Hints:
The complex is a heterotrimer of chains A (224), B (637) and C (253).
Chain A: H1 2-9, H2 11-36, H3 46-56, H4 61-91, H5 107-110, H6 112-136, H7 143-151, H8 154-181, H9 190-223
Helix pairs in contact in A: 1-2, 2-4, 2-8, 2-9, 4-6, 6-8, 8-9
Chain B: H1 12-22, E1 35-39, H2 43-55, E2 58-62, E3 80-81, H3 93-103, H4 110-130, E4 155-156, H5 162-179, E5 183-186, E6 189-197, E7 200-208, E8 214-218, E9 221-224, H6 245-252, E10 257-258, E11 263-269, E12 292-296, E13 313-314, H7 316-320, H8 330-342, E14 354-357, H9 359-365, H10 367-385, E15 394-403, E16 406-407, E17 420-422, H11 440-461, H12 473-492, H13 498-512, H14 519-539, H15 551-575, H16 599-602, E18 604-609, E19 618-623
Parallel strand pairs in B: 1-2, 1-9, 2-5, 9-17
Antiparallel strand pairs in B: 3-4, 6-7, 7-8, 10-16, 10-18, 11-15, 12-13, 12-14, 14-15, 18-19
Chain C: E1 3-12, E2 21-31, H1 36-50, E3 72-73, E4 76-77, E5 99-103, E6 112-114, E7 117-118, H2 121-130, H3 150-160, H4 167-171, H5 178-189, H6 198-211, H7 222-226, H8 234-249
Parallel strand pairs in C: 1-5
Antiparallel strand pairs in C: 1-2, 3-4, 3-5, 6-7
Amino acid sequence: MGWFLKFIDSSVGKKLVMALTGLFLYLFLIEHVIANLLLLNNDNGEAYTIYAEVLGSSYNIPLRIIEFGLFFFLLYHSINGARLWWTNRKAKGIPYLVNRASENSSFFSRFMIQSGSIIFIFLVIHLKSFFVNYRLGNPGDTMYQGVVKTFENPLYSWFYIFAMILLAFHLVHAFQSAFQTLGLRHNKYTPFLKSFGVILSILICAGFALIPVYFLYLHNAGGY
Amino acid sequence: MKLDSKIPAGNLAEKWSNQKFNYKLVNPANKRKYEIIVVGTGLAGASAAASLAELGYKVKAFCYQDSPRRAHSIAAQGGINASKNYQNDGDSVYRLFYDTVKGGDYRSREANVYRLAEVSSNIIDQCVAQGVPFAREYGGLLDNRSFGGAQVSRTFYARGETGQQLLLGAYSAMMRQVGMGNIELFTRSDIQDIVVVDGRARGIVLRNMVSGQIQSYVADAVILATGGYGNVFYLSTNAKGCNATAIWRAHKKGALFANPCFTQIHPTCIPVSGSYQSKLTLMSESLRNDGRIWVPKDPKDKRAPNEIPEFERDYFLERKYPSFGNLVPRDVASRNAKEMIDDGKGVGLTGKAVYLDFAEAIQRLGKDTIIEKYGNLFEMYEQITNEDPYKVPMRIYPASHYTMGGLWVDYNLMTTIPGLFALGECNFSDHGANRLGASALMQGLADGYFIISYSISDYLAQLKKDKLTTDAPEFKNSEKEVDNKIKRLLNINGSKTVDELHRELGIVMWDYVGMSRNAEGLNKAKKMIKDIRDDFWKNVKIIGTNEEINQSLEKAARVADFLELGELIAEDALQRNESCGGHFREESQTEENEAKRDDENCSHVAAWEYSGADKPEVLHKEQLQFEFVKPSQRSYK
Amino acid sequence: MAELNLHLKVWRQKNKEDKGRFVDYDIQGISTEMSILEMLDVLNEKLIKEGTDPVAFEHDCREGVCGCCGIFINGRAHGPLKRITTCQLYMRHFKDGETIVLEPWRAKGFPVLKDLMVDRSAFDRIIAAGGFIAVNTGGAPDANAVPIPKHNSEKALDAAECIGCGACVAACKNASAMLFVSAKVAHLVRLPQGKPEREKRVFAMLNQMEKEGFGSCTNTEACSAECPKGISMDVIAELRREYFRASLKQENN
């Protein structure tokens, strides 16, 4: 086991962990956004509520295990990312007076820790309003009602949209970077992976951002 | 002094094998007791350091750069010769030997050259095993090309960066030994003196280029692999740091300097653009395979090249040498270009260039073929000159490139100081008066991988081990001398920079001791060099102290030596009353203005002995014997 | 040929211990045909005549292959152009009146020695740790004994072109030496001769890289974009594969 711990804690290993946990989280986001789009179904939340109940059922053991993994990976991804950033920061000399980094690398790739940190703060708030309240607490209303109520708050909604823009930044670099980290790079497929990752990441985040926009502007308009 | 070349007896093909057998060996268990200093980490130095460390000797390696991998061998483009005969075109050890002796215009030792040709094959094997990615055919076997007018394809290459790949191979072998603790590596070390104790080379004194400290190192033998002295011309294709200090110090301590006037001028370099020019960039001479060299017929013709009609152009090489045309040897091409320029027909803003035109080749072969063959060279040319050689003819000018002369060594590569060996470009041994293309890399690696490891054991095995340390008076005296010289330099505080003075020397060397020399000019040059030297010691200005990184001080110490060596080059050129290879004496030419050798009076190695400051050097001659090839006059008509 | 008047902002630092600072210089009549190092030569001649310490900078071959030179010019390693070293940057790429900022490579692994000179000996130690094929001189089989597909040989050469200048480290926001290390690992593993030691090599070189205080790669690709030899990011992916493979295969690591 010693070799394994050493392996995942080496500089290449740490990055591998980032890639694998990242890809897992990416898959989760795809599932999450598809489910969230049920909210847009004009059925007063019926479909969404069924989904939320199935998902949240205590007897759904496999899902509980996956859920535990999800939290574990999320935490690992965040802490590991912070450690990488910290060790890499120590490797740097004093900053350049002039540094035209935009000429040699993408904006997204250089601000992963910043986008990641804000997304992490967002996740804490996000989990508190939904997961903690409706899965662990005793809310007194349905998840759907909770969603409607939360997103009617423009401050919350705009923070949500802002976080989704950052998430898109994060994912645009993350997706192709994960494959590079896994050593999967070839002229045959890397250009495709790069464009595919950009499109998919933007679609995912746009899907998420659509929810607050809908409840803030479109849903109410129909309701009155 | 009697020069003994120690050439073994016997048939040419058996000399080296016999010699290897006759060498005394050092017991494997005892090898680690012997310390060897290697100065320089180019092809010769790195390969020697690696090979000796592998055998078990304790090696200390020194270089002036920040890493051994920077040595100027790295800049060699074309390739490396070897008599593998992979192409089935009739190559053989004997043919490579013959071509090299002939190419050197019969001024090299037969036995040395034969050995070089003999071990050439092993070099390729060794390099491939180290991971040097030579060019290959689709079937996976090694590719060859014909180079520098050779009649067979025996040149192995790796794109246009053969030197780099070979050096990185030797460097990695050396670094492996550094990692294993068998080589102690000292970078940023400027060798200032060779220390001789009881008539044997026992160590070096150097200036640590970071701290300025003067440090001594002791050993049982000292190997110099410090490259050539082409920078005596100031402008050359050498790296800026290339210098002659180590070999010049060795010379002053008693090592004879052989054939200093044998310098090679390469015809296809990018011309000088202004007085600030700091170095010249070489372009592979393969360009002459397809490019046509010309100047306008009328010196007053200042039109753009493309506006000059065909009949007003003088393709002077094609005109004068109908059978070889643009492919005449380096020295002939260079000298003819100089002649045109001296006649006022030079082109470009400075008037110091001739055209190398690809218009006809592009028309004949298509632009794509030209891109494939010379793309990277064209790119480099455009990068530097901002001119597109696909549209406008290139401008080229000759530049000092390689020095065949160097420390005199015997067959065992030992100088006239016992225990002091010289390898690679810094010795004189294999190229005679002119080096063939792709042979410099071969010689450096032959000396380092396959010759020194045998010959040094013969020397070491006969040594009596002692406990000499750097506290010995010889070391202390030498340190003091070096220290005094540095203090003297720093205290002059005159008005001229080192570069200014170096440039002045370069101009004299180029004008009077360059491609074409005559007695009057050489005498004048000797006087002028002496004047510049006096001026240097009165007027040089160096800022800063010794106890810091001081690049002007480094340069000054080197230029001080060039200023002495320059005079010896002129003296040697004056004494050699013939034209041969890269040495062209105007007094010795045929009716058709071609170089004329004088085998009767000049078939010798001129080895110079230092006899004290401001005293004339003493000339010793090693007569060359040609038992196996018969010297003939070159003709390229 | 035109002439430029320029304003220079140059990092001056007396030695390793000195804190260092920027010093401004005005310089006139710089020919567009000069290289930037020749421009510095001209500046230094002027400084010497004025009695001040010239700017120390590293250089040797001045034809783009030795890897000595390396200045961070106007925010870019080796200046604004792609695929060239500092010595191959010509003044025609600057405008009259322009300010040029010259800084040394910045990385913990490359301490500044003086002005624009840094200590890159860490690279040598990385190579000494494993950047070689362990064959002694003599006894090598015939060079044609093992055929190597042309494609593989060319790919090996692509990676072997690294000149060890350190621009990759200088440009990387993590000061990672990953491109340098990967180029050597890829060069050797792409050849049959380099395969026997592949596991040992990748561990040894990476360990040494970490020991030297370089950061790790986060795939910004700045290194490859600034590499004067255009070494591709492919080599880093290849190093990662080598590392995974070695981790699973090697007995004791």
